[in-house]
Design goal:
The chain is built from 20 helices and 2 strands. With 465 residues, the chain is mostly helical. This is Fatty acid desaturase domain-containing protein.
Amino acid sequence: MAIDLDLTEADVVVLKNLFQDIDKNKEHTPQNSLTDRTCEKEPHDQEAIERLKAWNDPKSLNFKPTVFVTWDDKDIHPFLNQWLVRPYARLATGIVRHPVDVVFLTHILLYLFVNLPSAIWLFCNFTYIHGVLHVAFTFWCTGSFTLMMHNHIHNNGVLSKDWAWLDLTFPYVLEPLMGHTWDSYYYHHVKHHHVEGNGPEDLSSTIRYQRDDLFNFLHYWARFFFFIWLDLPLYFLRKNKPNLAVKSCLSEVASLAFMYYMTFHVNTKAAVFTLIIPFILLRLGLMVGNWGQHALVDEIEPDSDFRSSITLIDVPSNRFCFNDGYHTAHHLNPRRHWRDQPLHFLQSKDAYKEGRALVFHNIDYLMMTIKLLQKDYMHLAKCLVPIGDQIGMTQQEIADMLRTKTRRFTEEEIQAKFKQGPAPASSKPHRWSLKAAFSKAANRIPDALAMSPPRVEAEIVRKDQ
């Protein structure tokens, strides 16, 4: 297996460590297998862990804050580094909440001084060339902005207390320009998705879909795109959370009303390029990403965080999107700092092995979704980094194993396999609920055959919001 030279430094450390595990496993007999040697850390494990700790520790001489997503410290010319980047980083550490998060200030400034003036200029003096360039730049930045906001909503901000005014206001200025609706990401992701964890009550759950089928994905996307403005408030009402129902509905409706007003009463062309197109692209991207994150769900233990999400060691998800590829780690603890995700992975590697987690490299969530919809399981098998019992499996065996993880669950299986069981009668959807209608439509999709591996009991308790 080759290591992509564009990987983050942390990803290189993690991937090299996993490759060393594979090589060491080949050197041992079955009586002396890798799973028998997990009671204490191997020297290469401890070395990698200490290296990642030093990078994240402001008191260490090897401390490295993240200033840019495109370049690492080693990629910057020494002259620029000494006289421009490092002085900026020292100044920024007093503004951001965590010393490693200089990159968040970098991006806030980028969007406020590029995206915002560009959008204002388009409303004042629209040209198609400028509009197309604006959309292209916004699309390039959307992943980084969204995952910056992902950190923002999970940790109640990214800047220090002295800069709380900016921390509070910049999302309301920038979210519409980047395709988001005001506060909806927080209500849907923190107050809903992480509470349900891809389970039966999760509106973005994949378990009722055949996850390698294009029609099923289009159904999944269309439900979110056209009906989430109503579906999410109804969810909160079913959960007896009327305040969240009202807030989520108002945030979505207010955002849509703002886009309507800017489009039909201010400048139609400018609004299309600065608000409408980013909105459509982001909502497509969110569903493509979530599908890739939760398409491979274990048929025996689907409520395990190890078996309902995946880990990607790749370029886009981790370099440009703040380690979003460590999705299993994020579900295990949604408030863990993004720079600590690779460290957590190595520290908890034995639990990942016992939990039969899935780790991939050289593939991001977009390509994960595309390859699943193409049913190209051999490509996915080539990208899998085997851990634990997966080491020694042939690519065909891995491909066959991955195929079993995309089968749609029936309602009977959902009630039997999810620990929470069926919803109580008082919280079941009413006849007019969109959830009931879409569930019935999804149930018409024929089942596929499944192969069931032995059940693994070991699991880290999920720390849901």
